[in-house]
Design brief:
single chain; Helix Hairpins; 2 domains
Length: 278
């Protein structure tokens, strides 16, 4: 049994972590909060921990990354423990499945080194994934869109859905018609806004939300055709806005005053110009 007392400098192992989770989930001696959790209630924490890993990487903090990776590993252990309680699978099955997948998708490393050039230049990875999906579909796995997770960020999911559809030819062959579609969606959004009256303080009509969503979906498609990650681009834009707005705040605070929109626009342009010189 795992000892809870201080054990000095001994490093805990993965087996210790699995034992901790089993103890937490024990219906009699475990933690009441942990015992009542389910896949659905833990899923939001899993997503949050993945984001915190990405945040630690963005901040280039390896100390934070070590801690956040531990938190993310706990999520895997948590889900595996709950599945084990239902006698569906356990942590060992998770490890076995991902190990087999990595070996299967890297034949140039584990089977035949002569396939290395094909892997790099002929998209062997995607072909192997496509074969796996075709096999899944043959076993009654449903639509090729079914394996795109619902919980991923919406822009990311839009790109993944578009990629799946493109695999069977449902895609434009160039960027021009995608831009034309974006212009069409902008026009439809404007028309929906005009038809709603655009009254101040009035909740937007459902149609406006739908048209705005259509426009975002097309913008994600433009990013896909350009080979751009729209989530990363939006994160960069958020960071840029934050830097420049903080520069405005600092300039106004130094002068001890508020300002007009025109003045803040001028300070924004100064911050933008200063960044361009760096």
């Amino acid at each position: 049994m795992l000892k809870m007392a201080d054990e000095g400098p001994r490093l805990h192992t993965l087996e210790d972590l699995l034992a901790v989770m089993a103890r937490l989930r024990d219906p009699v001696a475990g933690c009441p909060w942990d015992v009542k959790q389910s896949f659905a209630t833990i899923a939001p924490y899993t997503v949050e921990e993945a984001y915190e890993v990405a945040d630690a990487i963005a901040r280039e903090s390896l100390d934070a990354l070590k801690e956040e990776l531990g938190d993310l590993l706990l999520q895997v252990v948590y889900h595996a423990q709950m599945a084990s309680e239902q006698k569906r699978f356990d942590f060992g099955d998770v490890v076995d499945a991902i190990t087999r997948k990595m070996i299967r998708r890297h034949p140039h490393v584990f089977v035949d080194p002569s396939l290395r050039d094909e892997f790099v230049n002929a998209d062997l990875w995607q072909r192997i994934k496509a074969e796996e999906k075709a096999e899944w579909g043959a076993r009654g796995g449903g639509s090729r869109l079914d394996d795109v997770p619902l919980a991923v960020p919406a822009l990311m999911r839009a790109v993944k859905l578009q990629k799946r559809a493109a695999e069977v030819g449902f895609d434009w062959g160039s960027l021009a018609p995608v831009f034309a579609k974006a212009e069409e969606e902008i026009a439809e959004l404007k028309a929906a806004i005009d038809s709603s009256g655009n009254d101040a303080g009035k909740p937007p009509a459902k149609e406006i939300g739908e048209e705005f969503g259509d426009l975002l979906f097309v913008m994600a498609n433009i990013a896909r055709h350009l080979g751009i990650d729209p989530e990363a681009s939006l994160r960069d834009a958020n960071a840029k806005f934050t830097r420049r707005f903080k520069s405005i705040e600092a300039a106004l605070a130094a002068e001890g005053r508020n300002s007009t929109l025109e003045e803040m626009d001028r300070l924004w342009d100064e911050a933008k110009a200063a960044e361009s010189k760096e």
